[in-house]
Design goal:
Length: 209
């Protein structure tokens, strides 16, 4: 009998998170997709004909209290914000470092098979750019974590897709990068804008089946 997998998704309401959950619901290997969310899911955003989604509303400030939900096969972390959304660098770091790091720790504690999360192209703990520095720091923290053998990060550039909120500066960047995309070859290829669906697909490919 073919093994059926259980997945846990954090950040299921974001651009990549939505694409990921829909792909998991359409993936015959998965029987359950648990989504830890801040507010109830808008079911219209998800195609779930087999009723795989189990949405659990939680307080991420107390993520440790929900560690039982990490007793799955695969953990997908799509958590992330912007400094503008968060309101300050410390609030940004709380989401993009602290929450993601805790999720990895709970994955290890509950012995899930693998942990995949979204980082960023250019992530570097020594970067002068605060955003890229935080992304690099959390990569270092997770990838050096003992007894978490199957951890992997996807490092997308600018994300293509329909967001609920308007990100003016990011939209400008996407337009410019899209125009330059045909000449972004070789080492520059990683800076091409990428669709949320492509990132979600890559996250699933990185899991250990």
């Amino acid at each position: 009998m073919t093994k059926k997998y259980k997945a846990l998704v954090l950040g299921a309401t974001g651009l990549v998170g939505k694409a990921l959950v829909n792909q998991l619901c359409n993936d015959d290997r998965y029987e359950i997709v648990i989504c830890l969310v801040r507010a109830p899911l808008q079911r219209a955003n998800y195609h779930d004909p087999l009723d795989k989604i189990q949405a659990i509303v939680i307080d991420f400030d107390y993520l440790q209290d929900y560690q039982g939900y990490f007793s799955v096969d695969h953990v997908y972390c799509c958590l992330g914000t912007t400094i503008k959304q968060a309101g300050s660098q410390s609030a940004f770091r709380r989401v993009d470092f602290q929450f993601v790091h805790i999720a990895a720790q709970l994955t290890r504690a509950q012995r899930a098979t693998s942990f995949v999360w979204i980082s960023s192209v250019g992530a570097n703990a020594k970067s002068k750019n605060f955003y890229l520095r935080v992304k690099g720091e959390v990569e270092n923290a997770i990838l050096s974590m003992p007894q978490l053998d199957n951890a992997a990060a996807v490092r997308p550039s600018l994300l293509l897709g329909q967001r609920e909120e308007n990100r003016f500066a990011e939209n400008i960047g996407i337009r410019v990068a899209s125009l330059l995309s045909p000449v972004m070859k070789g080492p520059l290829a990683k800076y091409r804008p990428v669709s949320a669906a492509q990132v979600a697909y890559q996250m699933i490919k990185l899991q250990v089946f």
